[in-house]
Amino acid sequence: MEIDILRxxxxxxxxxxxxxxxxxxxxxxxxxxxxxxxxxxxxxxxxGIHGIVLDIISGPKESHAQAPRRKSGRELMNExxxxxxxxxxxxNQRPPEDKIAIEAGRGxxxxxxxVCHGIKGDGKGxxxxxxxxxPRDFTFGIFKFRSTPTGAPPTDEDIFKTISRGIHGTGMxxxxxxxxxxxxxxxYYIKTFSDYYTFYYEDGQKPVVVKTPEPSMSEKKYIExxxxxxxxxxxxxxxGKEGYGDxxxxxxxxxxxxxxxxxxxxxxxxxxxxxxxxxxYMTIATGLNGTPMPSYSASLTHDEMLGLAYxxxxxxxxxxxxxxxxxxxxxxxxxxxxxxxxISFQIxxxxxxxx
Length: 355
Fold this sequence. Notes:
Elements: H1 2-9, H2 16-27, H3 31-38, H4 48-58, H5 73-81, H6 99-112, H7 114-117, H8 156-165, H9 180-190, H10 196-200, H11 219-232, H12 236-239, H13 277-286, H14 302-315, H15 329-340
Helix pairs in contact: 1-2, 1-4, 6-9, 8-9, 11-14, 13-14
């Protein structure tokens, strides 16, 4: 929708006031308008204020039947806080990656993302200091959460998924407050902060994507296998014998920028990608670039990695035990930052500002 409007605007001449008005509505509108447009997933893939703007440009459209009700932002956020993996649609409303799309992504990034990640994408936003986990510095082109081999940059889908689903245990909340199209635009713009993408794929090669294998045994057998793999893979050195994140090396770990980094407490925290075995498997198989967490694809079999994923999920707090999940300081701080910026995620009751 946004790209359609901008492309139509590119053909408009001698109408600077109209162009300025539309850009303001699209990207720097007041929080109340953004809330009304994007908060409810009933309007998640809808037109909101963009439909009004498009009507101004092209005239009224035929009315459409009301779409079935989808989950509200509050429902989605509660599910995410409880460890649910939010659904992501990669294909719907994906605009072409061109200069117009990238520039549109820049506007959204400045309005929504720069407060933590910085105008220059260096992770030095004005509110970054309020977060214990440093916001990602995009200028290095190094991303933790990928479906590509260790050392490789992520795919577009990987970045889109992180924006859409957020990262558990950090200040990166899921951005379902943005439309599908807007998240793609931000994805394109984020890639412009580093030339690592073009450098890595300079010969025109396409990213190699790691696939999660289909289970070959029961969940119970995978969990039993995972217990032995946890020892074999020396996971306890960092994550502790019982998975409490209290291993012998836990207090000594640093990332590639020499910042202290703590291993996940599997007993109290949802794994960063979520509780689905496929997501945990992906972290084990690809590692987390920029951190001490290596890829185990060369030392463990597919079944061993899948068994480890099932075992980790079995000891993690589950949806039915919501009170056992620790919501850490960064996640709470993110709610406060977004609230003060006027971005409505419809904060769950237990995190209503001020808490």
